[in-house]
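$ run holo --ligand "pyridoxal-5'-phosphate" --emit tokens
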Amino acid sequence: MTYTITIEESSSKKQKPADHELGFGKYYTDHMFILDYDKGKGWHSPRVIPYQPITLDPAAKIFHYGQSVFEGLKAYRTNDGRILLFRPDRNFKRLNLSNARLSIPELDEELALDALLKLLTVDQDWIPSSEGTSLYIRPFIIATEAALGVAPSTQYKFMIILSPVGSYYEEGIHPVKIYVESGYVRAVAGGVGNAKTAGNYAAGLKAQEEASEKGYSQVLWLDGVHKQYIEEVGSMNVFFKINGKVITPALNGSILDGITRNSIIELLKQMGITVEERQISMEEIYQAHQEGTLEEAFGTGTAAVISPIGELHWRDEQLIINQGETGELAGKLYETLTSIQLGRIEGPKGWVVELPKS
Amino acid sequence: MTYTITIEESSSKKQKPADHELGFGKYYTDHMFILDYDKGKGWHSPRVIPYQPITLDPAAKIFHYGQSVFEGLKAYRTNDGRILLFRPDRNFKRLNLSNARLSIPELDEELALDALLKLLTVDQDWIPSSEGTSLYIRPFIIATEAALGVAPSTQYKFMIILSPVGSYYEEGIHPVKIYVESGYVRAVAGGVGNAKTAGNYAAGLKAQEEASEKGYSQVLWLDGVHKQYIEEVGSMNVFFKINGKVITPALNGSILDGITRNSIIELLKQMGITVEERQISMEEIYQAHQEGTLEEAFGTGTAAVISPIGELHWRDEQLIINQGETGELAGKLYETLTSIQLGRIEGPKGWVVELPKS
Ligand SMILES: Cc1ncc(COP(=O)(O)O)c(C=O)c1O
Ligand SMILES: Cc1ncc(COP(=O)(O)O)c(C=O)c1O
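-- output --
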């Protein structure tokens, strides 16, 4: 595919927030990227334009049938002033897997990455530099055809927006309390749980809200069939260290193939630690806890990188893990992975992509 | 709640399509209704305005997390020039049930109905009058806050748009071929299957597309746990007549509480026919078919009212039902229910709401 990405620079630049005000996903940069799709014509008109509202017919399919996919990754500014992306090729590959599941036309992954680099070049001043901050990147596709029939759309928009985000851990990595959800279900085999699509997140809001009210920061989902097997946390995959071995749920079709998960598995293997990707029940976790062999638990995801789990609430029981402290392994993995992402140490080949100097 | 619905009339009226060009959900009327929600302020500013595109920040939650609900109902023009709605109170009640599941603030059902009547009054010339045509009404709510955190939105829009639609059966009621889906799953107990929310429809697109390619018009979903029990068809509930009795899946939490379903059950009871709302497996349907006791099958929903099923495809077998013809009961129910909806015969109290003459 040949294409030319046009760039229309914004005439007025926004005021940038201070690093300590950032939070998550509240501020957006001066530009965004758009690519249109029309049936018969394919994807066309790639362009970087000033960040602006989008205008859609009220009958646009995204409003009614949720036909959409998205991704999330980060750009980091290094101490020596380089700008690094972490495994962006994996995000665009996953976007296309989500597309296939949602009957959305395939995207040219090279074009998408190229578009991201162009957009980042234009808005690079927005990438914050304080410890722990980064630029969150949100590529997404929405169905825009104005038609109420339930069928795949004939029109789409692929967009990339950028949001400078604060440090996930203001005061250093620390553990979270997680509520094991036995009532609500997020996804089931045969469904869309392994796609990064809007409806999965809408489906999790209620449980998330109820868990928050009880003082838990996120929900740990169980499988929809037996309500026994561990799936994933709200927006993280999950790992358990039992008796020196690390166990994480296998990619079973109903959980997301997390890029942090994949990277952590690789790092663990390099460290010579046994990793088992398999079905794991809450009962097994509970038993290990009772026997004192549940050494650590942690979540993995782009937002927090590693999130140690200090407490699991399951069936009216509180399982305190590692005295509610960050485990040694979780701490080490966090340190290693963030150091790779920030270019402080070398990671496996191809993990880090540097933005070419403009 | 006290409120005043303002009306801003469109200065230019669109050309109306001819009745035979209508199709489904392709044309929209001259006006629409909007109501805004802001946290702290509640629902506010109800207004009928010219039909127009809506403008949203690219970070609006609807684009990323699919927090949304919708409804579908119809207005009919009777032979003697009245305009009738069928059980609209049920739609707004169901909208609020969906809201509760999706963590969307409750809507004032009276205001919603009032808004619909005002909008219909303004756009009543759009209601077609040929046999089988109607005005399809689409109330919906979308999350509009521009924030990427996965949490319920602090801002929403409730809107109603109207679309004149053609006859579902150009040449009289006739049976459809349905594909029983054994791979993909639409919803599972504990999920959002009983809410009318965008993600459920996105989740069904792929299976629907594959069934279409095989020559089937819709998919019959099975339960997500055992993949044995019958749930519902794409956008219809489903009924089977076996040995003189009528059986339909019970409201189990993962199927929609269809308003046509509810009405059909009531009509069947009035006709003295036994109706069982219970779990029913495909195996049972298959056995009944083998034994010759599966007399009829049909779907129920706002779009087609009654859709006789002439063929079910299950596990490489074609089950032909009633020689692929419309069954006597399905035909009679269609005749009765459409006659009630068109004001030709009297239905149960409260089913039909007439638009006050303006
Ligand atoms: C449901 C879900 N699981 C897992 C993850 C972690 O994936 P990744 O490591 O690619 O960010 C995410 C976040 O992206 C997610 O939304
Ligand atoms: C999933 C689903 N089931 C059933 C129905 C039938 O419901 P109703 O009779 O209220 O139109 C619909 C259509 O609204 C639907 O979308």
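-- notes --
The CA atoms of residues 290 and 319 of chain A lie 9 Å apart.
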